[in-house]
Design a protein that fits this description.
The complex is a heterodimer of chains A (221) and B (961).
Chain A: E1 6-7, H1 11-14, E2 20-24, E3 27-32, H2 36-45, E4 47-50, E5 56-60, H3 64-70, E6 81-86, E7 89-93, E8 98-103, H4 109-113, E9 125-127, E10 132-137, H5 141-148, E11 164-168, E12 171-180, E13 183-190, H6 195-208, E14 212-213, H7 216-219
Parallel strand pairs in A: 1-3, 4-14
Antiparallel strand pairs in A: 2-3, 4-10, 5-8, 5-9, 6-7, 7-8, 10-13, 11-12, 12-13
Chain B: E1 14-23, E2 26-32, H1 36-42, E3 49-50, E4 57-58, E5 71-73, E6 80-81, E7 92-95, H2 121-124, H3 133-143, E8 159-170, H4 174-185, E9 190-193, H5 212-226, E10 230-233, E11 237-238, E12 246-251, E13 254-265, E14 269-271, E15 284-286, H6 287-297, E16 304-309, H7 313-323, E17 327-333, H8 342-349, E18 353-356, E19 358-365, E20 372-381, E21 386-387, E22 393-396, E23 399-403, E24 406-408, H9 411-415, E25 419-423, E26 428-433, E27 438-440, H10 450-467, E28 500-502, E29 507-508, H11 509-517, H12 523-530, H13 543-554, H14 558-561, H15 575-579, H16 592-597, E30 600-605, E31 608-614, H17 621-634, E32 637-640, E33 645-650, H18 654-661, E34 674-680, E35 686-696, E36 699-704, H19 709-723, E37 728-731, E38 736-742, H20 746-751, E39 768-773, E40 776-783, E41 790-796, H21 800-810, E42 817-818, H22 821-830, H23 865-871, E43 879-885, E44 899-902, E45 905-916, E46 921-928, E47 938-942, E48 948-953
Helix pairs in contact in B: 4-5, 4-10, 6-7, 7-8, 11-13, 17-22
Classes of the chains: A alpha+beta (221), B alpha+beta (961).
């Protein structure tokens, strides 16, 4: 097991905001930006949080669902939907036979999945995941998304368990909405290399709309 | 003299909020809610601008967003539409199309030479003598166009948003409001759009002398405001219709792309001017413009005037004028049968003289044509459009209100693919065939009375609800009753012309007649020759009249003439709106921050930003690159290759998939070894190359060039669908970082970090191994793209920076140095490797780059094989060869794309060239004719300045590697 600490893919774009960094799940990530009071306000209006540090596991192939089930994870029955596969762990069905498993702040299912052995698992292939991942919340979240995404993401159109694979700010992204401690938030994943760009775009608009960056600490307080 | 009226019922201005501004250097005052035009008119200013071509003085025409002669600039923005743009504090305004001011315009003389400048004159003149054309071109360009582009315009972000609804209703007049309320009552989500600051359409100005309709308007608007199902976009225009009911709605702040399940177009109609001599003088305006002036802005259009009409609406206008204190000297009705209704009777009771079967023959100008002093009215023959001047009557007046008919505001309907037919009862094109989900209501649908329009809105909403699967009662609307709202031919011939049809481009009746005589007698041709409808108002007040004229010229019914094509955008929209936020997505590797701190000069490679080289103080770019290259040749260098495309091909058919996809063989490839891959398209053209490493029996790891990664992955997915092999494709481009360590000391440096033996002997070319660096699992592949001894190290991208730093630290004693893509290109050139996309183009086949060894034609199939079999039978036309220039070459440095010349003809081109510090001479790759490709052959390269460099075909590598 390596002792090397990963750095969030968004770190380069966050440099100017001078966040207080800390390690979560083996990755250095922004814990706070402007202090609890400001970030609390941002959360209410429009807060953007980098959660790329959440552990992820990807798998695809005709036997992928079976294998996940054997590991004790619940999987969504429908394509492009998600469930809480285990306490604190999201399981997203990205297609007929592709899944993304992501531990939330207190989840730990991904550790158990690292036992995957491709040679012994016919019909399933591990998908290395290093997505940049974000939480977007606050009263203006939908306003922001209406500029970045052409999909109808209003509650009336976006089912509570729907996974949308779309374009956000012109790049491929995966999106869903969930309830986090009673607050409705949107989750966005994109290719790790687009992480800094996505952060810049989300933050630029968030700041225009009266919001801003929210660190991991404030997000989960 | 102030023309401001006492407070009007429903007016849009706030009289307690004064606004000061200047126009043409003079200070004026208006009220909040005024437009620029209404504030100027209230201050007694009648001349608002000069016409485009003849520089004639012009005032108000429509007050409805197409007063093109009243365009102003505030120094920053140009072509501000004074008739609709709200007045703001401190505006400093000037008319755009003048030379010396709107009153003393030096170009006003052009009006007097207008007979020399008929439409199309510029197509025929100035071509000869050719030598003078540049002079004329300069003159014409200076005269053409409106306003001056401000190249210092600040970047103002205009957001482009997305919105959604069940039904989008465009136009919030009576029918639109009614439709919105009915749709909302059926539980439909409604978006209601109107271009005006306030809802209501004609209810806000068409009063016929009393304010009874204001109560109805207030009630409708209150209901709309109270409805949770209705979202209103006011001061917003629907700029176009696109597939799947997508309509961009433009506001001052940006664009909202509305996607609806259904669309109701209730856009109403544009009032059309009757055409008579001097119908463009300041003071002559559309009847609806006069009404807007009175009821929206509390401004008296003129003091004493007449109304020229050809429908019932003109009588309503006359009553509004009288109610506003205007002395209406006469109503001139162009129709022989006139009008018989309550409004006429009321006017007669008020002592207004009605001239039935008369026309305005001409408006009499005051000095300088800065206004009008009277109107000459004559008996009118509708069949010939001629006036009987022998019975002319002159009426003293300072204004004329014109109401001769309407044209449907149907651009969005046309764009949606609707069918329109001409209805002779109302002399208007009306919809007769609707695409799915498109509906029309109100006057654009040919429904005119207020009651019928309200019902028609409800009818359209009911049809939408039914279309969307709701069970609702059908609503019916009676067809039009009474006289036609439009005159079929409201034109008056005049020997002096200047009877304007298109006020944007100063086009007169005779221009159409001349165009037809020249053969431009099709509406699309006539449009282009005369430029009718091609000005900023896009024909909103002129296209219908142009169609009527052409129909008369050709003696055809109007419906046989048809209409011109209505394209989005419906209304001129600022470029800044179209640009929006300017998203420039870019990809960065996880080492990007380090590169920047190290002085990297970045270049864009596809979506990626990559270091081209690391700038060193005091060194030129070339010197820097050559130093980086020397470090690799003499010791060791390191490059971030994380941008390279990386794909895992898994499954029982993985090898079979590669054998079909690439030109090589992979079935017998051993685990732990890599092979070159070459990808062709179906025409046999070189698309990409890379390396396939077999990590397990059923798993290959592929690299793809940076800029091709996405396209190649898409192709893989496409072919996999076609072939239906048992294969899983995993794109791990972003998930894995890649660092290439290259140079004679590469293995020495790497050995310090890995437990496996990576020495020359134990880890030969093509070897691949999975191991760890500092506990991080990595894949190491021995490749030779930039150096004989080079290792590609793949790791989870989150660890790339740590491993990069570890390698730099490990190589410190060897003088390890990072290098960029420009250096990489030099290094691979020194080894003689070509790069797809750099040394090949969209037509290059593998024979031309001498890649025969990569082709396994014995295979039953690979992409492009069939084409190669055909190509192989034909003689080659070009060959890529390595070349050098003489060691002592002192001439101009040839560049990429310089041509290979033989006997004055082009034989090929240079694809890559550089000075090689390792070879100590200039080396390169070039396409030459096959007969020039033999080893030792000398060929000519023509440099940028026309010099000739002698190049010799050589072997590669260019140096003793």
């Amino acid at each position: 097991m390596t002792a090397l600490i990963k750095t969030t893919p968004v770190a380069y774009a966050q440099h100017e905001q001078k966040p207080a960094m800390g390690v979560h799940n083996g990755m250095e990530v922004a814990l706070s930006f402007e202090g609890a009071a400001v970030e609390k306000t941002h959360k209410q209006v429009l807060g953007v949080t980098d959660v790329s540090c959440f552990a992820k596991f990807g798998i695809k192939g005709p036997k992928a669902a079976d294998w996940l089930a054997k590991q004790g994870l619940k999987t969504p029955d429908e394509i492009n939907s998600w469930v809480e596969g285990a306490p604190g762990t999201l399981v997203l069905r990205l297609g007929g036979s592709e899944f993304l498993v992501e531990d939330q702040i207190k989840g730990n299912a991904c550790n158990g999945l690292s036992t995957f052995n491709q040679d012994k698992t016919a019909g399933a292939y591990q998908v290395a995941r290093a997505d940049a991942a974000f939480i977007l919340g606050g009263s203006q979240a939908l306003n922001l998304l209406s500029e970045l995404c052409v999909m109808d993401l209003r509650d009336s159109a976006l089912a509570s368990n729907a996974v949308v694979m779309t374009q956000v700010a012109g790049i491929s992204a995966t999106l869903l909405r969930e309830s986090l401690a009673g607050e409705q938030v949107y989750r966005i994943w994109c290719d790790v290399s687009y992480g800094p760009y996505m952060w810049e775009m989300l933050l630029e608009i968030a700041q225009e709309l009266g919001g801003g960056a929210v660190g991991l600490t404030a997000r989960f307080q | 003299m102030s023309m401001r009226l006492p407070k009007q019922v429903g007016e849009w201005i706030s009289r307690d909020k004064q606004i000061r501004f200047t126009f043409e250097g003079k200070e004026y005052t208006g009220y909040e809610g005024d437009t620029i035009t209404s504030a100027l008119l209230a201050s007694g200013v009648k001349v608002l601008g000069r016409s485009f071509k003849y520089h004639r003085p012009r005032g108000v025409l429509s007050l409805a967003n197409h007063d093109i002669n009243a365009l102003v600039t505030d120094g920053q923005d140009t072509n501000i539409r004074a008739d609709v743009v709200k007045l703001t504090k401190g505006m400093t305004l000037k008319a755009v199309n003048t030379d010396g001011g709107v009153i003393n315009d030096k170009s006003k003389y052009i009006d007097s030479i207008s007979p020399l400048l008929p439409v199309g004159f510029y197509y025929k003149a100035f071509h000869k003598p050719a030598a003078l054309f540049p002079f004329w071109e300069k003159v014409i360009r200076k005269a053409a166009g409106l306003g001056v582009v401000n190249f210092n315009y600040p970047r103002i972000n205009k957001r482009k948003l997305n919105d959604f609804c069940d039904v989008l209703i465009i136009g919030a007049g009576p029918s639109g409001l009614s439709a919105a309320l009915s749709a909302a009552a059926n539980d439909l989500e409604v978006i209601l759009v109107d271009e005006n600051q306030h809802l209501g359409g004609s209810l806000t100005y068409d009063r016929a002398g009393n304010a009874d309709t204001q109560q109805m308007l207030d009630e409708l608007v209150a209901k709309v405001s109270a409805s949770p199902n209705i979202k209103v976009y006011a001061a917003a225009y629907a700029a176009g219709y696109y597939q799947d009911h997508m309509v961009p709605v433009v506001t001052a702040d940006g664009i909202t792309k509305v996607r609806a399940k259904a669309v109701i177009v209730s856009t109403g109609v544009f009032e059309q001017p009757p055409v008579f001599h001097n119908n463009d003088l300041p003071g002559v305006m559309l009847g609806s413009a006069a009404q807007r002036m009175i009821h929206r802005y509390g401004v008296k259009p003129f003091n004493k005037g007449i109304v020229v009409t050809a429908n019932a609406h003109g009588y309503r206008v006359a009553l509004d004028l009288i109610n506003a204190g205007v002395k209406v000297a006469a109503v001139v009705d162009m129709r022989a049968q006139g009008q018989k209704d309550e409004q006429v009777a009321e006017l007669v009771r008020k002592g207004v003289k009605i001239y039935t079967g008369f026309c305005v023959y001409e408006a009499t100008p005051v000095k300088g044509k800065l206004g009008m002093s009277g109107a000459v009215v004559c008996p009118y023959d509708e069949s010939t459009a001629n006036a009987d001047v022998a019975k002319a009557v002159t009426i003293e007046c300072d204004g004329i209100a014109m109401s001769a008919g309407w044209a449907p505001a149907a651009a969005l309907l046309y764009q949606s693919g609707i069918g329109m037919g001409y209805n002779n009862d109302i002399q208007q094109f009306v919809p007769n065939r609707f695409p799915k989900g498109i509906f029309a209501a109100g006057r654009v649908n040919g429904v005119y009375s207020l009651e019928a329009r309200l019902t028609d809105g409800a009818r359209a909403a009911s049809e939408v609800a039914s279309f969307l699967g709701k069970k609702v009662a059908a609503v019916s609307v009676e067809s039009h009753q009474g006289t036609s709202p439009s005159h079929p031919y409201p034109f008056v011939h005049h020997p002096k012309g200047k009877n304007f049809v298109d006020f944007d481009e100063d086009i007169q009746i005779k221009d159409f007649i001349n165009a037809a005589k020249e053969g431009f007698d099709n509406i699309e041709l006539m449009k282009r020759f005369t430029t009718v409808g091609m000005g900023p108002s896009q024909g909103k007040h002129s296209n219908m009249n142009a169609i009527r004229i052409l129909a008369k010229i050709r003696n055809l019914p109007v419906e046989k003439i048809g209409t011109t094509t209505a394209r989005p955008f419906f209304h001129p929209t600022p470029m800044g709106h179209l640009g929006g936020r300017s998203f420039h997505s870019h990809r960065l590797t996880s080492i990007h921050g380090w590169h920047k701190a190290a002085g990297a000069f970045f270049v864009d490679v596809g979506a990626w930003s990559r270091p081209a080289y690391y700038q060193k103080s005091g060194l030129s770019k070339l010197e820097t690159i050559q130093q980086e290259a020397q470090a690799v040749r003499q010791s060791v260098g390191i490059i971030d290759g994380g941008t390279l495309g990386k794909i895992e091909v898994c499954g029982p058919d993985a090898a079979a998939f590669l054998e079909r996809f690439y030109t090589g063989v992979y079935a017998d490839q051993k685990v732990g070894h890599s092979r070159y891959v070459l990808l062709l398209d179906e025409l046999g053209v070189v698309v990409d190359d890379g390396i396939a490493t077999r990590l397990a029996d059923e798993m290959f790891f592929l690299t793809i060039s940076t800029s091709n990664a996405a396209a190649v992955y898409r192709e893989m997915q496409r072919w996999l669908q076609i072939w239906q092999l048992n294969v899983g494709l995993v794109n791990v481009t972003g998930a894995y970082g890649l660092i290439n360590v290259a140079g004679p000391n590469a293995s020495k440096v790497l050995s310090k970090l890995v437990s496996v033996d990576v020495s020359e002997a134990a880890f030969p070319m093509g070897s691949a191994q999975t191991t760890e660096i500092k506990g991080v699992p990595v894949r190491i592949v021995r490749a030779a793209f930039v150096a004989k001894q080079a290792y590609e190290i793949y790791m989870p991208t989150g660890h790339a920076l740590s491993i990069w730093k570890a390698l730099l630290e490990a190589g410190q004693s060897e003088g390890i140095r990072p290098f960029g893509t420009d250096t990489q290109r030099l290094l691979r050139l020194e080894l003689g490797h070509h790069m797809p996309g750099y040394d090949t183009d969209g037509l290059t086949n593998p024979f031309e780059v001498r890649a025969e060894k990569a082709l396994h034609m014995e295979k039953p199939f690979f992409i492009g094989k069939r084409s190669l079999e055909i190509i192989a039978k034909k003689p080659l036309t070009k060959v890529l060869v390595p070349f050098t220039l003489a060691v002592d070459y002192k001439g101009e440095m040839p560049q990429d794309c310089n041509l290979v010349i033989e006997a004055g003809g082009i034989k090929g081109r240079v694809t890559s060239i550089s000075y090689s510090p390792a070879a100590k001479r200039i080396v390169g790759l070039a396409y030459v004719a096959p007969h020039q490709s033999e080893l030792g052959n000398v060929f000519d390269i023509r440099t940028d300045n026309g010099g000739i460099a002698k190049a010799t075909v050589v072997k590669t590598p260019f140096f003793n590697a």
